[in-house]
Amino acid sequence: MRALMPATASRTRPLRQPPAPAVPKGAAGEQARERLLLAALRLFADQGFARTSTREIAQAAGANVAAIRYYFGDKEGLYRAAYTEPMHRTRNDLSVYEQPGLDMHAAFVLFIGSFLEPMKLGDELLDQSMRLRYREMLEPSALWQEEVEQGIRPAHQALVRLLCRHLGLQHEDDEVHRLAFAIVALPMHLYVCRDLVERFRPALLDGEDAVQAATERLADYALGMVDAEARRRAALKKRRTQE
């Protein structure tokens, strides 16, 4: 019996676990992460968060599920990266708009340029990013509220402060907010109407030079709107002093 005990004991030892799948490092790791990000963006945009599995994303990217955990933490982390990274890679530091001597046209070029920079992503990537945003607006998660509070609201307020300084206002009012929303609508309409632009006048958004030209021209239009608001306020002040 004693002769059998070692063999019996060896059978009770825990089996050695197979090593975890290797995760690429360095440049190969960056490429693997990018493949996962793009595959997730496409699937999340097409199917939504709940109907997309990490296994499906990994298979589409030619990676293993362990890579998702390594690069993004979990499915929620991958969704956040797919939602934010492609569209936010060139977002401006808002402190640039606080510089006292900043020229208004230069400020508008920066502001509008940050909106239009994603236009240079390419049609497929841009389409997927916009579809994912529309999904998030229709079926909002905490991520949309986070973007509103940490991204959209601060940018809007930075623009309002810039307009107040240029117009010589001590306090913001409804009209300066109305003007800020109108300025933001200038670049945003190119996203909403992009299909029509490509049908009616595709050269307007064809390539980086075209996007830069659009940025410069919309900055001109924004400056014209500000000048019109300044004249409106001056005329209103004059009427009040004459009454």
UniProtKB/TrEMBL annotation:
<keyword id="KW-0238">DNA-binding</keyword>
<keyword id="KW-0804">Transcription</keyword>
<dbReference type="InterPro" id="IPR036271">
    <property type="entry name" value="Tet_transcr_reg_TetR-rel_C_sf"/>
</dbReference>
<dbReference type="InterPro" id="IPR015292">
    <property type="entry name" value="Tscrpt_reg_YbiH_C"/>
</dbReference>
<feature type="region of interest" description="Disordered">
    <location>
        <begin position="1"/>
        <end position="27"/>
    </location>
</feature>
<feature type="domain" description="HTH tetR-type">
    <location>
        <begin position="30"/>
        <end position="90"/>
    </location>
</feature>
<keyword id="KW-0805">Transcription regulation</keyword>
<keyword id="KW-0678">Repressor</keyword>
<dbReference type="InterPro" id="IPR009057">
    <property type="entry name" value="Homeodomain-like_sf"/>
</dbReference>
<dbReference type="GO" id="GO:0003700">
    <property type="term" value="F:DNA-binding transcription factor activity"/>
</dbReference>
<protein>
    <submittedName>
        <fullName>DUF1956 domain-containing protein</fullName>
    </submittedName>
</protein>
<dbReference type="Pfam" id="PF09209">
    <property type="entry name" value="CecR_C"/>
</dbReference>
<dbReference type="Pfam" id="PF00440">
    <property type="entry name" value="TetR_N"/>
</dbReference>
<dbReference type="InterPro" id="IPR023772">
    <property type="entry name" value="DNA-bd_HTH_TetR-type_CS"/>
</dbReference>
<dbReference type="GO" id="GO:0000976">
    <property type="term" value="F:transcription cis-regulatory region binding"/>
</dbReference>
<dbReference type="InterPro" id="IPR001647">
    <property type="entry name" value="HTH_TetR"/>
</dbReference>
<dbReference type="InterPro" id="IPR050109">
    <property type="entry name" value="HTH-type_TetR-like_transc_reg"/>
</dbReference>
<feature type="DNA-binding region" description="H-T-H motif">
    <location>
        <begin position="53"/>
        <end position="72"/>
    </location>
</feature>
